[in-house]
């Protein structure tokens, strides 16, 4: 059984999956969503959940630097609740402060073009969110 990490935005959701032992996170894909129209990509997440035998979700939780919860944090809470309702699996909200910036920095250092960075940044952030969670479980 594996764990799925999600970096939820207003237009995309980056997806990462743990290996079978729960040691490492791998980026799978970025799915398009439309928050305004209520299209959250749950059908594709369901397909991936079955394909990878997922039993738990880790959703990035974008807190403000002062630890308060803003509109994006509230949106992540709602997304997590949608996952709980649809799948019945445990859902962990994981502090994701600065993960997108860290992912961007890694991609820049790897000399990835701006166009290519845009297409993989959410998937990379999902990897960082999930890997942080997996690492915390090893302590």
UniProtKB/TrEMBL annotation:
<dbReference type="InterPro" id="IPR012337">
    <property type="entry name" value="RNaseH-like_sf"/>
</dbReference>
<dbReference type="GO" id="GO:0000967">
    <property type="term" value="P:rRNA 5'-end processing"/>
</dbReference>
<keyword id="KW-0963">Cytoplasm</keyword>
<keyword id="KW-0540">Nuclease</keyword>
<dbReference type="InterPro" id="IPR037027">
    <property type="entry name" value="YqgF/RNaseH-like_dom_sf"/>
</dbReference>
<dbReference type="GO" id="GO:0004518">
    <property type="term" value="F:nuclease activity"/>
</dbReference>
<protein>
    <recommendedName>
        <fullName>Putative pre-16S rRNA nuclease</fullName>
        <ecNumber>3.1.-.-</ecNumber>
    </recommendedName>
</protein>
<feature type="domain" description="YqgF/RNase H-like">
    <location>
        <begin position="1"/>
        <end position="103"/>
    </location>
</feature>
<dbReference type="InterPro" id="IPR006641">
    <property type="entry name" value="YqgF/RNaseH-like_dom"/>
</dbReference>
<dbReference type="Pfam" id="PF03652">
    <property type="entry name" value="RuvX"/>
</dbReference>
<comment type="similarity">
    <text>Belongs to the YqgF HJR family.</text>
</comment>
<keyword id="KW-0378">Hydrolase</keyword>
<dbReference type="InterPro" id="IPR005227">
    <property type="entry name" value="YqgF"/>
</dbReference>
<keyword id="KW-0690">Ribosome biogenesis</keyword>
<comment type="function">
    <text>Could be a nuclease involved in processing of the 5'-end of pre-16S rRNA.</text>
</comment>
<dbReference type="GO" id="GO:0005829">
    <property type="term" value="C:cytosol"/>
</dbReference>
<dbReference type="GO" id="GO:0016788">
    <property type="term" value="F:hydrolase activity, acting on ester bonds"/>
</dbReference>
């Amino acid at each position: 059984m594996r764990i799925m990490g999600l970096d939820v935005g207003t237009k995309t959701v980056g997806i990462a999956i743990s290996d079978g032992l729960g040691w490492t996170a791998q980026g799978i894909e970025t799915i398009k969503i439309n928050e305004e129209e209520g299209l959250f990509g749950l059908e594709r997440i369901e397909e991936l959940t079955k394909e990878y035998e997922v039993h738990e979700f880790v959703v990035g939780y974008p807190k403000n630097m002062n630890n308060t919860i803003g509109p994006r944090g509230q949106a992540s809470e709602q997304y997590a609740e949608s996952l709980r309702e649809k799948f019945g699996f445990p859902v962990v909200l994981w502090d994701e402060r600065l993960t997108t910036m860290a992912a961007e920095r890694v991609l820049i250092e790897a000399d990835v073009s701006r166009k290519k960075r845009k297409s993989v940044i959410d998937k990379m952030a999902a990897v960082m969110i999930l890997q942080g969670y997996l690492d915390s479980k090893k302590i």
